[in-house]
Amino acid sequence: xxxTLEAGATARARAHSxxxxxxxxxxxxxxxxxxxxxSISVTLDALFTDTRVTFRSGLAADEFWLSGCRQExxxxxxxxxxVRQARGTHLFAVVESANNFPTGAGLASSAxxxxxxxxxxxxxxxxxxTDRQLSILARHxxxxxxxxIFGGYAQMHAGSAADGSDSYAVQLxxxxxxxxxxxxxxxxxxxxxxTSTVGMGAxxxxxxxxxxxxxxxxxxxxxMRAAIAARDFVRLGELSEYNCLxxxxxxxxxxxxxxxxxxxTVAAMHAVRDLxxxxxxxxxxxxxxxxxxxxxxxxxxxxVQEALSNVAGVHEVRPSALGPSAYxxx
Length: 330
Ligand code: ADP
Ligand code: DP6
Ligand code: CO
What we know:
- The protein has about 325 residues and is α+β, with helices and mostly antiparallel strands.
- The chain has two domains: about 170 residues, Ribosomal Protein S5, domain 2 (2-Layer Sandwich); about 140 residues, 2-Layer Sandwich (Alpha-Beta Plaits), CATH 3.30.70.890.
- It has nine helices and 14 strands.
- The radius of gyration is 19 Å and the shape is globular.
- It binds adenosine-5'-diphosphate (ADP), ligand DP6 and cobalt (II) ion.
């Protein structure tokens, strides 16, 4: 590696979004962005972010462009600061990114976005980081991004170290180890009014259910790990739906209430339960937004897609396989 980082140093990366089966909501430390609970997710092939990072001379600050529009860069700069520190440079960077799905809408754009940024920024700086270091770097932008460094099934450890060094994700299985399908049901294209960061702070501060959320997380994580190890789809699905509804109970009891659902969200939840009653093993999960992710077996995708397309208010139904780890494009 040369002594000084050359202006113009650039790299591009792709990272896929993920959906948590056992969810993260609440922080231990807002500066380190360490989660209060561990989480388990699957990475989605159909939803991804492409990001280019270019270090330049003559910039007064980092610039963040999303689909050609200049955005606020505070969180992006937090990740770039760590890269600059590790590389020993003062050069600012231009970040050019695009998501192939709606941003800030409950489809985990912060997960794919900051995982892609971690890989592209460290690559442009000429750093060779381990997956664990990349996961920690991505976590500083968004907690869910720590999981999107990995394909297939990932678990995020909450950790307890004062410096956040044991708060990172690991891969449990690849998608090839146990192929599942996720049908993404989009009921709203616009961004949520309360971001995940703000929403989870409000839940921790005001919901009487928050202590129960913290107390019951370790049991859900252990059960989900066992379901994945046993390749037990029914157990995985039932537990995912239960943990999702527990999260939304926490959101609904936050003051003021966080109601991320719309009418189509509820109709789609019923459609999934109807499918199940008719013998198709399908289970929903929902993040901080009005979109459903329907977990099902790959052979059942056409049935699930057809059923959810017929729900009033559904804009788009996008089937997905499990996706790969984050990677360099060039
Ligand atoms: P989502 O449900 O989409 O994850 P969040 O409220 O968690 O919504 O995150 C939205 C945040 O993620 C915003 O601050 C936005 O700037 C950031 N973000 C979205 N896409 C990207 C991207 N491609 N690169 C960096 N940051 C991104
Ligand atoms: C409901 O990772 O978006 O999607 O760390 O503040 O950026 P920040 O929050 P974020 O929260 C994700 C919340 C969730 C559940 C999950 O993905 O685990
Ligand atoms: Co997010």
